[in-house]
Every structure is written in structure tokens, then in C-alpha cells.
Design goal:
By secondary structure, the chain is an all-beta fold. It has strands spanning about 1-15, 20-40, 45-60. Helix content is about 0%, strand content about 65%. It has a three-stranded antiparallel beta sheet with strand order 1-2-3, with no helix packed on it.
Length: about 70
């Protein structure tokens, strides 16, 4: 089993107005899950291997840029 929590991770941001990308420290995320594997020797020449896993990774908090509203004068 594992539980990984990321705080303030690096992410590429592309603002909707100027389209010039930059890297910023944004948001939080959590990944949790498990993996298991087994190897069984049925004979000296024959083995069976089994494995499975599950991961649930999600953003907890995201930071979004929204275009500034420009009012015509």
C-alpha cells in the first residue's frame, strides 16, 4: 500500500491571453493505491507469476488562471 501527498508541485502554466508558458508552484495532489505480486514454483522448470495493482491519483487543489476582463473605454 502507498499514500503519496504532493504539496505545491511544479506545473507548466499557459495563460489564456498571451500563450507564453512558464513553470510555477501550484496546487496539491494525492496518489494512493497498492500493488502485489507472487511467484510460485510448481516444478523445478515451471513457475507462475501473478501481479496486480491499483492507483487512484487526483488533484486536491488546482490553481487556474482566468483571463482578465478588459472593458472597452
Amino acid at each position: 500500500m502507498y499514500y503519496i501527498r504532493w504539496n505545491i508541485f511544479n506545473k507548466t502554466v499557459i495563460p489564456p491571453v498571451c500563450q507564453i508558458s512558464f513553470i510555477s508552484n501550484l496546487g496539491t495532489a494525492v496518489a494512493k493505491g497498492f500493488d502485489i505480486q507472487a511467484e510460485i514454483a510448481l516444478t523445478d522448470a515451471f513457475t507462475v507469476e501473478l501481479s496486480t495493482g491499483y492507483t487512484d491519483a487526483r488533484y486536491n487543489q488546482d490553481s487556474r488562471l482566468t483571463p482578465a476582463r478588459i472593458r472597452p473605454s
